[in-house]
Automatic annotation (TrEMBL):
Lineage start: Bacteria, Bacillati, Bacillota, Clostridia, Eubacteriales
Organism listed in the record: Oceanirhabdus seepicola
InterPro entries: c-mor_Regulatory_Protein, Homeodomain-like_sf, Mor_transcription_activator, YraL-like
Name of this protein: Mor transcription activator domain-containing protein
Domain Mor transcription activator: 12-86
Pfam families: Mor
Signal peptide positions (record): none
Domain of life: Bacteria
Amino acid sequence: MKHIKAKNVLPEDVIKIIQEYIDGDYIYIPRKNSNQKSWGEKNGIKEELKNRNIEIFNRFIQGITIKGLAQEYYLSEQSIRRIVNHENTLRS
């Protein structure tokens, strides 16, 4: 998260009001609910995991074993089963 100088984005009267409550310290202003991003959207990890899971499912369909996939992707066999079941549900 980068810092933005208040004087560059806020009107002077708003800055003075804020200074009544917090003077010279940092303050975090959260996003509006309508602008919030869900986990992984900002850095793209959500999309990467989605693509990985589709790849795992497709390889399972091609005959790669749960154990083989677990070793290849450094995941537990339980995680591979969960991914396969989830992808199978999405396609049903």
